[in-house]
Design goal:
Number of strands: 0
Low-confidence stretches: none
Distance between the termini: 24 Å
Number of helices: 13
Structural class: mainly alpha
Oligomer: single chain
Largest sheet: none
Helix content: over 70%
Length: 265
């Protein structure tokens, strides 16, 4: 790994990293705080005590009445998924393809920087960005637990498991994006394919949960293997091995692809 490339790559992402980290921390704090107020007002409204299946399919959980449920719902919220996707795919998609598109990779590689070292620096920088954003969300939840009386029931260890599962999931998508970038010469193309795969995986899981006839398709989605509510409860830990393995395979293929390809194309 080349330390100079790692430092420069991380520096380039500093502004979006700060924004995403603050936004994620604020989201989980506000989500817990507002949920605490909400629970005291819903009373016996049936839809919140027994939510429809569509809620469970879209949010990954439907426990609106407990602090741990709020964390699980937050991890499945579309806004959070979008921010985690931005953190995971933004840098990874342009890691190689963006450098080729700008022509800067020719200059870098002529300075005796090995391809493996270059790619490793890009991968580590992207994973570092994702890790900081995810950790910020957990920090926001912990801060809410300490300052919101109704949130004192949040299980910190369980919340940490939920965020770890989310990190593994989006790390897998990040490494898949890195593979696509290693085979592409345009950042826009690499980013478009990566976003398409992530969004497609999400909706395959949702549709499979809602439609009995295609229920088996859920196994094709990485989202199926990471359920925040189960992880927070201490269950489903073994299933996260699937996206972890896929991420490792994608990383290995990225190194093979980048070493073999003609970067002039």
């Amino acid at each position: 790994m080349n330390a100079l490339i790692l430092k420069q790559t991380f520096k380039q992402s500093l502004r979006p990293l700060i924004f995403l980290s603050l936004a994620t921390a604020a989201f989980f704090y506000v989500a817990v705080w507002s949920s605490a107020s909400f629970v005291s007002q819903v009373g016996d409204v049936p839809i919140f005590r027994d939510p429809p299946e569509a809620f469970r399919a879209m949010l990954g959980s439907a426990d609106f009445l407990s602090p741990n449920g709020w964390i699980a719902i937050g991890l499945g919220h579309p806004l959070i998924l979008a921010m985690f996707a931005a953190a995971a795919l933004g840098m990874a998609s342009g890691g190689i393809a963006g450098e080729i598109e700008r022509g800067t990779i020719d200059l870098v590689l002529t300075r005796q920087v090995k391809r493996n070292s270059f790619l490793a620096a890009k991968a580590i920088a992207a994973l570092a960005v994702l890790t900081i954003v995810q950790a910020s969300g957990l920090l926001g939840a912990i801060l809410a637990r300490a300052t919101v009386e109704e949130a004192s029931g949040i299980n910190v260890a369980g919340a940490a498991r939920g965020f770890l599962g989310s990190w593994i999931l989006f790390s897998a998508f990040l490494l898949i994006a890195l593979l696509i970038s290693a085979a592409s010469s345009l950042k826009s193309k690499a980013l478009g394919i990566s976003v398409g795969l992530l969004v497609g995986s999400f909706f395959v899981n949702v549709v499979a949960l809602l439609v009995d006839e295609v229920h088996a398709l859920r196994y094709l989605s990485l989202f199926h293997y990471v359920r925040a509510d189960d992880l927070i409860a201490g269950e489903g830990l073994s299933s996260v091995a699937v996206p972890a393995i896929i991420g490792i395979v994608a990383a290995a293929l990225a190194f093979v692809t980048f070493n073999r390809r003609d970067i002039s194309r």
